[in-house]
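Researcher: For the annotation table, I need structure tokens for 3-methyl-2-oxobutanoate dehydrogenase (2-methylpropanoyl-transferring). Please keep the output clean. Sequence:
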Amino acid sequence: MSALQPLSRLVAALLREDERRCLLGEDVRSGGMLGLSRVAAQDEQLRARVLGSPLTASAHVAHAGGLALAGLRPIVLLPSSTALLEALAALRELGRLRWRSGEQRAVPALFVAPNGPGFGVGGEAAESVEATLAAVPGVELWCAGRAEDLCAYLRSAADFSGAEARPAQVGPRVLLLPRSVVVRDLLVDVDLDQALPRSVTALVREGDRATVFAWGEALAPALAAAQACAALDPAIEVKVVDLGRLAPLDEELLVEHASATGKIVIAHAGPRRGGLGAELAALFADRCILHLDAPIVRVTGELEPALVAGHEELRASPSASAIAAAINHVVHY
């Protein structure tokens, strides 16, 4: 069983728990692209809050913004993260509303979208657009990395408690679900009541020889690479940090982990040029330069995701072997 079934049950549970929550999206009344709204749409008590929206992504964002300002908690299920590129102007307006209202109005809207390669379709359906979304002011950007964490990410991302008391700190939130992760088999039972038991950015593997920063579909190969390096040489224990929240970055925590080893590898899907990994590398160059013992190495996919055919799609993500080679490079530099 993949994570899609428990995610669908969780979406319905979130609506039952808070009457202010509602679902928006193109096909949500028939289950949505990934079936995430299927359980809610089949529940007669919830169906009135499952709202089919116009086909344009900008209409989804504008509609959600209006509902959030009216006191509701909209959850928008999008067919792809690239839809938010079409709605970028509307998303920017939502992100700015807190400041334009003199920090008097919160915008507790959640946008959920699949991102990156994994469905074997190629083209736009394999794009990783987090670098663009992370640059939108006032928008929180989250990205899950492991199948067993997807439900906890969704529950935590949908929690806007305190929005009325702290409107200046609550803006729109985007949760990216990596396509290669949502179709992965779940190997553990998932507790739908469990939120993230940690901060969104967190250490997921201990180590003292190097630090790998990864997120989304790159997290699994990063962990596999760290384990492979330790298996070949027990002296090479590699720390792995799951960014989780891509905007705003938890800079102090990231700098602390980077400085601890002085040897840094950044792994992510999507383009190397202009990717979020470049922003991280700049942060570490600015803040950790006196602690670095090797060049900062970025590992991405072999090809530009937007140009990848379906059968080559997985080449748009970094492989465990490529990350392991980067780890060995910085460790032995």
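Researcher: And a one-line annotation?
Model: The chain has a mean pLDDT of 90.
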